[in-house]
Amino acid sequence: MLRAATVAAFNAWTLAIFAAVTLLGVVLGDMTSLVVAAALGIFAHVEFRGAALFRRFDPSAARLVGYNQLALGAAIVAYAAWQLYQSQHSSALAEASQTGDPATDAMLSNLTSTITIGLYGTVAAVGIIAPGLNAWYYFSRDKVVRRMVDRTPVWVIDALRAAA
Fold first, then answer.
1. 59 in helix, strand or coil?
2. 75: exposed, middle or buried (Cβ count in 10 Å: 0-12, 13-18, 19+)
């Protein structure tokens, strides 16, 4: 349980740091960064709450943070898909890479498209794998916490909760 609490706390701090860094985009005028930072902040808050619940040996912790990780993964994949869509349907990047030579422009366009697909494809893959594995780990802790709470005398659980 304490290891799960540590994992949840690590994930929460990581998400909180990413939320803070993402807020820097707002300073540069990107209002999408505000939405992304708010979402990351919400995911971080739930992870912090889950870590606290794990420390109190609350069986609901595993499901809370497990579903939070699945939602985070879905949000990451949606973000990557949106960015891919935007990059394929935006003319701003194509206009910025105009050199005047049609062959060079075509090469730069293809290179930009390949890099963008690779970048956001990797983001989507990481968004599936990392939160998916975290969710699997958290859901596997549900039975462990329930078994521990069911088989341990109440006074021991109370003492452990007081110590945490």
1. coil
2. middle
156-162: long-range contacts, CB 8 A cutoff, minimum separation 24: 157/57, 160/57, 161/55, 161/56, 161/57
Quote the CA–CA distance of 6 and 86 in Å, as a whole number.
37
What is d(CA 55, CA 141) in angstroms, rounded to the nearest whole number?
13
SS3 of residue 164 by DSSP: coil
SS3 category, 99 = coil
The tens digit of pLDDT for each residue in 22-72 reads 999 888 888 889 999 999 999 999 999 999 999 988 889 999 999 999 999
| Phi then psi dihedrals of residue 102, to 5 deg | -60, -40
Residue length of the chain: 164
Query: CA-CA distances (angstroms) from residue 64 to 27, 56, 116, 162?
Result: 33, 14, 34, 22
**pTM attached to this predicted model:** 0.82
